[in-house]
Amino acid sequence: MSKQNQRENKIIPFIPEGDFYFSKGIEAFKKRKFDLSLKWLHKAMEENPKNPLYMCQASVVHTETGAYHLANQLLTRVLSNDGDHYVDCYYLLANNYAHLGLLQDAVKYATLYLEKAPDGDFSEDAEDLLDILDFTEIEDEEEDWMMDEEDDLLIYQESVFYHLERQEWEEALVLLEEMIALYPDFIQAHHEYRYALFFHGDRQRAIELETNHFIENPKSLYSLMNLVIFHKYEQNIKEMTDYLNMLQNIYPLVEQQKLKMAITFAQAGSYEEAWNRFKVLRKSQVKGHPSFYKWYSMTAYILNKQDLAQELWKEGCRQHRHVLKQDLPPWTDIVNQTK
User: Does this entry carry the keyword Transport (predicted)?
Assistant: First the structure.
């Protein structure tokens, strides 16, 4: 045998498989290189799309980056296929829903976890979470929401969030109409429907529906925020100011509600108040929202914090390149008007 043939016979072909990519993803995760970790984990999932371990680890990375909706999509998929073997997913879902402000869902999944794994690795964490939620005020209008609704609702929630953040109003309305028909007691869907309806073009109908709801439920925080935004864009300054004044002394406990309120003040042009609300947000819990970067950067720019505005916008475009990268910075119109 020739030396050339001997050398060729010693060459062992190496074809990376899912476990190789998975190990690289874990390594990057431990170094807190989350973007790189997700890159490797996605490669692993391409090799083996049904591997529940790959999906669970990717969900953990998404949670670390504040992309709770993406994390929940993966966890829900694991539970639908391998729920009996991956009960930790119930706790991870509970934790994510607590961060998203969906407190009833958080209670539901924390309770499910403790039922299925009373001595599990996360049992103490689940009990602590339930204790915290016990002391957290949940809006009265949501208290009738039943905790045993089907998991299909989760898929609707993730899909609606996707379309609303991308301002795909028609697609969001179709899903929200289905949600309301299937889950009429899920009040948040009604508020999101009116919001999408307004920006889709049926403005007076949206205002009428939200106003009627607010008259019947004067403590509804979501109604207040929607009405501020609706009257701002309709240039009903007196009505907008009246509703905005009602928000001034309200400080929600849940991060997602805090974010929506900060965005509401920014959209209403109350940038000083918006700044006060944005700067106390826990960024790790809200950076999964493109709207966080859009309105926080706008607020910073208006308040002459241009360097921070540019930094926030660039980071937002990196985090949400499919949503923000094609857009101009939100303050572009203001700059053009001053030229």
Answer: no
